[in-house]
Amino acid sequence: MSTATFYIVKEDSSQNSVQGFNDYVVYLCQHFSRQGAKVYLQCGDKAHAERIAECLWQVEANDFVAHNLVGEGPKYGTHIEIGHVGVKPSWNRQLVINLADNHTTFANAFTEVVDFVPCEEKAKQLARERYKMYRQAGYQLQTIEIQYP
């Protein structure tokens, strides 16, 4: 069964800042890729995708995870592929981490979706809409409050 997990960003958490949120995304990429998952990061636009790629370069050597932007890198890609609205993954991925703040939905395209519920009210409402879409598509849904320093 397909699952969609929504991580709730608490107002008083470090993830409620751009740097803290990006650090958490890097952590998730490391976590999932170590489990062998092929991950697709969906960003809002090309500039956002490039910023996230840069965050993945800024880790310690021991924590580095190979990654590439859509259309770059080896033929079958790396464990982490970064794209944006308007482009598609180069090949089959099991898991998508949605960083786009629009109505992007991956229902039926991935077996596992990771999404976020931000603090800001408009973004929170968009997350609720995505949640409804996944529920209607038959995804098993869960929410998790981020417990990360």
TrEMBL record:
<protein>
    <submittedName>
        <fullName>DNA polymerase III subunit chi</fullName>
        <ecNumber>2.7.7.7</ecNumber>
    </submittedName>
</protein>
<keyword id="KW-0808">Transferase</keyword>
<dbReference type="Pfam" id="PF04364">
    <property type="entry name" value="DNA_pol3_chi"/>
</dbReference>
<keyword id="KW-0548">Nucleotidyltransferase</keyword>
<dbReference type="GO" id="GO:0003887">
    <property type="term" value="F:DNA-directed DNA polymerase activity"/>
</dbReference>
<dbReference type="InterPro" id="IPR007459">
    <property type="entry name" value="DNA_pol3_chi"/>
</dbReference>
<dbReference type="InterPro" id="IPR036768">
    <property type="entry name" value="PolIII_chi_sf"/>
</dbReference>
